[in-house]
Design goal:
- The chain is mainly beta and 289 residues long.
- The chain has one domain (39-280).
- It has two helices and 14 strands, in the order E-E-E-E-E-E-E-E-H-E-E-H-E-E-E-E.
- It has helices at residues 160-172, 207-210; strands at 39-50, 56-70, 73-87, 92-103, 109-118, 121-131, 139-145, 149-153, 177-182, 193-199, 224-232, 247-254, 259-265, 269-280.
- It has a 14-stranded antiparallel sheet, with helices on one face.
- Strand 12 (247-254) and strand 13 (259-265) form a beta hairpin.
Length: 289
């Protein structure tokens, strides 16, 4: 079954809070000028590459991602990712995943829920709550499904929106590399990913890149950065001899949080996500103080 991380904003998180690039007390909140635009993005999924022996003969599907909320209220993300695959022995399978999360702008709390189906039968459900309200900044995780469980993570662990904003801050500052431990509640909710993101030079989109995307006019003139994030088991990074990432994700990451040209590389095979339709949603109205 194909697993998909919560890509934060770029799915995105992409899948990459209001942070400085190197907060003194880990991933704690600080003022940021980064503001993501609420939007719904629909991607067509195709098989980009399949290595001999992978068992994947073909795969197609669709990914629908929605981001709401903003700087004056919680961010909320939802995603549905459906694929139909055929294997080398001729068998077929439909995988269907729903995931939702809400994250406080301060980075204090993350609530998440993921349901995965295989051929319309429930295969896995994950639900939980991650909280870092204490003075130490340590993250307390309470899982309710698939099993009740309590965990603690270091203060420097990033939540998805936090990671995306910090990543964009790094890109705008001209950084070419950004490393962070990220917790998003994916899989069974009990893992933290060590991530290394390589950031290309920022540039403006070409007209032909957006020509086939419905409602993409608002992306014209907005800067984006080519980024590629490698996900490792905790303790293994690109600098570790012979270590390989569990998977890699790349995209063109726009300044307003929209992503295009998605690639999800699982090693033996890779999926491509082409943005087909983009809808910008109403901006939240901040209360006047």
């Amino acid at each position: 079954m194909v697993e998909c991380k919560t890509w934060a904003v770029w799915l995105a998180p992409v899948w990459a809070s209001c942070l400085s690039l190197a907060p003194a007390s880990g991933a704690s909140a600080a003022a940021s000028e980064i503001k993501f635009a609420p939007h719904r993005a629909i991607y067509d999924i195709t098989l980009g590459r399949s290595a001999p022996g992978s068992g994947v003969n073909d795969m197609t599907g669709r990914l629908v991602y929605e981001l709401t909320g903003g700087a004056c209220e919680d961010y909320a993300q939802s995603m549905r990712f459906v694929t139909q695959s055929s294997s080398s022995d001729g068998s077929e399978q439909i995988n269907d995943m729903w995931t939702t999360s809400s994250e406080e702008v301060t980075g204090s709390r993350l609530k998440f829920s993921t349901t995965q189906l295989r051929d319309e039968q429930a295969a896995e459900v994950t639900e939980g709550d991650a909280d870092r309200r204490g003075r130490s900044g340590e993250v307390k995780i309470e899982l309710t499904r698939p099993d009740a469980k309590v965990m603690a993570l270091p203060a420097g662990t990033y939540f998805p929106i936090q990671h995306s904003i910090a990543l964009l801050e790094a890109a705008k500052a001209g950084k070419s590399r950004f490393e962070a431990d990220v917790y998003d509640g994916s899989e069974k909710g009990d893992k933290v990913s060590a991530t290394t993101t390589l950031i290309g030079k920022g540039r403006q989109p070409e007209t032909k890149e957006l020509a086939s995307v419905t409602n993409a006019d608002r992306l014209k003139g907005i800067a984006f950065w080519p980024i590629s994030t490698s996900y490792f088991e905790k303790g293994k990074t690109l600098d570790t001899k012979d270590s390989l990432p569990t998977y890699e994700m790349s995209a063109h990451f726009y300044e307003n949080g929209v992503s295009t040209r998605l690639v999800m590389d699982y090693g033996d095979f890779a999926l491509k996500g082409e943005l087909k339709e983009l809808t910008f949603l109403p901006e939240p109205k901040c209360a006047v103080k």
